[in-house]
Design goal:
The protein has helices at 12-15, 19-22, 25-30, 33-39, 49-71, 86-93, 145-159, 162-169, 180-186, 204-213, 256-266, 348-351, and strands at residues 2-4, 75-76, 105-107, 118-120, 122-124, 243-245, 248-253, 270-274, 282-284, 286-287, 296-304, 312-317, 329-334, 342-345, 361-364, 373-377, 380-382. It is α+β, with helices and mostly antiparallel strands. The protein has two domains: 25-83, Helix Hairpins, CATH 1.10.287; 122-382, Cysteine proteinases (Cathepsin B, Chain A), CATH 3.90.70.10. The strands form five sheets. Strands 3, 5, 7, 8, 10, 11, 12, 13 and 16 form a nine-stranded mixed sheet that branches. The N and C termini lie far apart (42 Å). GO terms for molecular function: cysteine-type peptidase activity. Keywords: Disulfide bond, Signal, Zymogen. One of its GO terms (biological process) is proteolysis. InterPro entries: Papain-like_cys_pep_sf (IPR038765), Pept_cys_AS (IPR000169), Peptidase_C1A (IPR013128), Peptidase_C1A_C (IPR000668), Peptidase_C1A_papain-like (IPR039417), Prot_inhib_I29 (IPR013201). Residues 33-89 form the Cathepsin propeptide inhibitor domain.
Length: 383
């Protein structure tokens, strides 16, 4: 695959260059647990055991942020996860991809990826004028990242289809967001892929299966209510109105070139899984920590390949709200040998495997970002 260097606008590094300065070390030192409780609307009672427990967690992470920022190339900050236990943070990750793939590369019944041989050195699907692409969801304490990533991926493809976008927008006030709650509540998970589904985790592929079968309604018709960790039941009447459906979807596994080409040829973002154990305090910059336990689903919106003078990165949109990271987005280091930068996830049944799958799996790309990549095809409106 040839790389073409273009003059396309890429506002990412300049857009966030002042973020670390805005929230520098001195302000972090001054930031107290009382400030945190007020900012994130915690209901802890001062003087209670719960207050003491959460304040201790907060102070531990505050020291971690300050120490990291003295020498780090990317910045940590005071995020909503400052008072979370490790178990609570793991629950938010909630990503359980489907275990080992039988084939490396494309997995789909009908959809195909065309290899053109020439790809630009950078691409970004979410532009400043994107209506749906700039909306950052917040999954809350529900492990629904897989559903948010699938819904946002569908929205990216919807926004690339002007006719469908217009049809759906005509019936609602505001952007025609899709209902991630429908995916959380109604997606079957019969093989127990890392959990029981819903807020206990599933996969973007399972969500796409549901959209092929029943479709996905608008957020306007079924808003998100799982933010506190509950999974409301699914009812057949939820799919009686206009729904968006797909004819198929594509899955890419450990194939760097195919992922780059899919972003450029589809002109839309992709749903991906990645290792996110070290993300809770991410604030800005290019995240350089590497791990292989794939345990979180996000939206891959673009990339920039490395040059002689600048590092490369993947750009993703998370579902932790706009107050996390770079206004809800994140940049992850793209290695110069990303296509062969692989490792073994040795804890597959803690975050990857389904019933009967092996305990280990090979994952490639920084943080395993190339292991489980998917996107829909053949969008259409059904009523």
């Amino acid at each position: 695959m040839r790389v073409l260097f273009t003059s396309a606008l890429f506002c990412v590094s300049s857009c966030y260059s002042l973020r670390a300065d805005h929230w520098g070390q001195s302000k972090i030192r001054e930031y107290s647990f009382d400030n945190f409780v007020e900012e994130f609307s915690r209901d802890y009672v001062r003087g209670s055991d719960e207050w003491a427990k959460r304040e201790a967690l907060f102070m531990q992470k505050k020291h971690e942020v300050l120490a990291h920022n003295e020498k780090g190339t990317w910045m940590k900050g005071t995020t909503k996860f400052m008072d979370y236990t490790l178990a609570e943070y793991k629950q938010v990750l909630g990503y359980k991809p489907r275990g080992r793939r039988s084939n490396i590369g494309l997995v789909s019944s009908t959809a195909k990826v065309t290899h053109s041989g020439e790809m630009p050195a950078q691409y970004e699907s979410v532009q400043t004028n994107s209506v749906l692409g700039n909306i950052v969801r917040d999954q809350g304490s529900c492990g629904s990242c897989w559903a948010e990533a699938a819904a946002e991926c569908l929205e990216g493809f919807l926004e690339a289809n002007a006719d469908l976008m217009s049809q759906l927008a005509s019936g609602v006030h505001g952007p025609p967001m899709l209902s991630s709650q429908a995916l959380v509540s109604c997606t079957p998970n019969p093989q127990h892929c890392g959990g029981a589904g819903g807020c206990d985790g599933a996969t973007a592929e399972l969500a796409f299966d549901l959209v092929m079968d029943k479709g996905i309604p608008l957020e306007h018709d079924w808003p998100y209510t799982s933010g506190q960790g509950q999974t409301p039941s699914c009812g057949p009447n939820r799919f009686t109105g206009p729904v968006l459906k797909i004819t198929d979807y594509v899955v890419l596994t450990n194939d760097f070139n195919a992922v780059i080409e899919a972003l450029n040829t589809q002109q839309a973002p992709l749903a991906v899984g990645t290792a996110a154990d070290g993300w809770s305090l991410y604030w800005s910059g290019i995240f350089t920590e590497d791990a292989w336990e794939v345990n979180h689903a996000v939206l891959l919106t673009g990339y920039k390949m490395a040059t002689d003078t600048e590092p490369g990165y993947w750009r993703i949109k998370n579902s932790w709200g706009g107050d996390w990271g770079e206004e809800g987005f994140m940049r992850i280091d793209m290695k110069t040998n990303e296509s062969i930068h692989c490792g073994i996830d040795t804890a597959a049944h803690e975050g990857i495997a389904c019933d009967g799958d092996p305990d280990t799996v090979e994952v490639c790309g920084t943080g395993g970002i190339l292991y489980d990549v998917s996107y829909p095809t053949g969008l259409y409106l059904s009523s």
